[in-house]
C-alpha cells in the first residue's frame, strides 16, 4: 500500500528528516535531480530542448532551480521564471518544449496567477501550484499538469476534488524522507488485493463461501440479479437470493437459488438458516417504508454473520430517532456502502470537504466499516484506518453499478477477508472491471462479466 499524507503529516516528516541530517540541502538536491530525470523522460532527451522553470521563493522553487541546473548540464536550454512574474505571460510550443511548475508547494495559502500555457506539457513539482494539498480544492489559478513528481508519499489533495484532473500521472519519489508512524491512510494497489485474496482450497466445497442475498422487489428485479451474479463471479460458491414481492417479481440468474420472502416477518425467516452462510448482502432494490426498516433492523440484530448493507438497506438500518443501535450492537463484520446522499441519511457530514475525516468519524460512530463511494472511494474502519481506491472511472456511473459492488464485497467477506480488506479489494476489482469495459455504452452487466478476469489477472501477476 502507498502511504497517503495530509500536509500536516508531511511537514512533520520533513521536520524529522531535517533534524536527523542537520539541513535540507541534501533533500533539495535529491528532489531536484528526480524532477530533472522525469523531465528528461518527458522530453525524450535533453540536448537542444527548451525548458521553462517557474520557481517560487520556497523549497519547491529550490527543487526547480536544482532541476534547471541538471537540465542545463545535460544540454537543455533552460529559463527560470520567478513565480511572481508569471501572470499574464503566454507560453507556447514556439519557444518552449516543457514547463516545470515549481512555484508553490503543499504549504501554499492564497491564490496565484500562472501564465497561459498552450500546447506545452507541464511537469509539477510535488503538487500543482495552487492545489489545496488537503482536500483538492482550488481557489485561484492553477496549471494543469501532465505529470507530477511528488516526494515521499501521495498527498490527500491529489486524490480528491480537482486533484486527480490536475496532477496527471503521479511519480512518487523516495528522497530519504520517511513518513512517521502516525500514517493511517493508504492507497490500495493490485498487489495488496492479491495478498488479501486467499487461494481456493483444493478441497473447497460450494457451501464454504456461501452468500445470502436479500435484495429486489416488484419493479426492482435488476438489483437482485446484479448483486447475485456479481457475488458468483467474485468467488461465492453458493448464492441464495430472496426478494420482496410474489414469486414472479424476480428471475434469479441461472446459478442462483431464489425464492420470495414472506409478506411479513421475513427477518425471522432469514435468521432461521443464516448459519449456513458465510456472509449476507441486504438492501439493494428492497424498497422503502417503515415496515421494511423494522425488518432490516431485525435482520441486523439477529443475524450474526458478516454483512454488507447497501442501497435501501442503508436508510432502513437507521432507527426512527436517527440512531444506530442496530448497527452498533452488532459483533460480526459490517460494511455500509453509501453514496453521498445515503452518507447524509446515516448522519455523516457531507459538507465537510475533508472526505477522509468525515468518513472516519461516521465509521467510529456506527462501529461499521464505511465504504463511501466517489471518484476516489474512501474505506474507513472503526479503528481509524482508511484505505483509498482510485481504480475505475466514469464508466461506473451507470445504473446497477453499486449493486455489483455490494455483491463483490459479499463474496470476499464469504471468502474470509476482514471487513476493510473485503471492501477495499472489492472497490479495486469493481473499478478495474469497469475500466476493462468499452469506453462507451457500458452497463452494469458488462462489469459483472469482467470480475472473474480481473481477479484472475490480479492473482496471476503476483503469484
UniProtKB/TrEMBL annotation:
HAMAP family: NADHX_dehydratase. Keywords: ATP-binding, Isomerase, Lyase, Metal-binding, Multifunctional enzyme, NAD, NADP, Nucleotide-binding, Potassium. GO terms for biological process: metabolite repair. Bifunctional enzyme that catalyzes the epimerization of the S- and R-forms of NAD(P)HX and the dehydration of the S-form of NAD(P)HX at the expense of ADP, which is converted to AMP. This allows the repair of both epimers of NAD(P)HX, a damaged form of NAD(P)H that is a result of enzymatic or heat-dependent hydration. Residues 189-458 form the YjeF C-terminal domain. NCBIfam families: yjeF_cterm. SUPFAM superfamilies: Ribokinase-like (SSF53613), YjeF N-terminal domain-like (SSF64153). It comes from freshwater metagenome. One of its GO terms (molecular function) is ADP-dependent NAD(P)H-hydrate dehydratase activity. Coiled coil: none annotated. Residues 10-183 form the YjeF N-terminal domain. In the C-terminal section; belongs to the NnrD/CARKD family. In the N-terminal section; belongs to the NnrE/AIBP family. The keyword Transferase does not apply. Its EC number is 4.2.1.136, 5.1.99.6. This is Nicotinamide nucleotide repair protein. The keyword tRNA-binding does not apply. Its cofactor is K(+). InterPro entries: Carbohydrate_kinase_pred_CS, CARKD, Nnr, Ribokinase-like, YjeF_N_dom, YjeF_N_dom_sf. It catalyses: (6R)-NADHX = (6S)-NADHX; (6R)-NADPHX = (6S)-NADPHX; (6S)-NADPHX + ADP = AMP + phosphate + NADPH + H(+); (6S)-NADHX + ADP = AMP + phosphate + NADH + H(+).
